[in-house]
Amino acid sequence: MRRISLFLIAFAIVLTVPAFGFAQSDWKTQVAHTMPLMGHRNWILIVDSAYPLQASPGVETIETNTNHLDVIRYVLGSINNSIHVRPLIYMDKELPFVPDDDAPGASAFREQIQKLLADYTIESLPHERVINQIDETSKEFQVLVLKTTMTIPYSSVFIRLDCKYWSADAEKRMRQRMH
Length: 179
What we know:
Layout: H1 2-19, H2 27-34, E1 43-47, E2 59-63, H3 68-80, E3 85-92, H4 106-116, E4 122-125, H5 127-137, E5 143-147, E6 157-163, H6 168-178
Parallel strand pairs: 1-5, 2-5, 3-4
Antiparallel strand pairs: 1-6, 3-6
């Protein structure tokens, strides 16, 4: 009886682990598979290694075990090569205030991320505000979280997807014509 109980516990663990994203063998394949399914209002987060595993059913977390900047490059390339979505980028407002004394490499990271995202508009918001937005979104829309090996706090890049072929101005003009 004890063996059966142990077997059932082990079997339950094996079934549960992939659901939380721990057993993901190839994060690039997952991004490539998910990208065509995602649209405006979905989010892709590239986060540091201490980012928490969220319990919301709309959040999928994948451990990339990869350099932060490499994951950002790959994801932005995937978005930019899509026909349907474009990135709206958010970062933590706290990042410019993280000193190298407390987080070695913070200044170098800020320089690197500034160069990497030079062609994008970045909206800086307090960390808690971004997290609250994502929490609300995950109740209705999918959020893909890609954990990296980054160990600098407030270094996460939050990408909200928007429609590539329909702008906010086009939406506004259409709504005005409807009235």
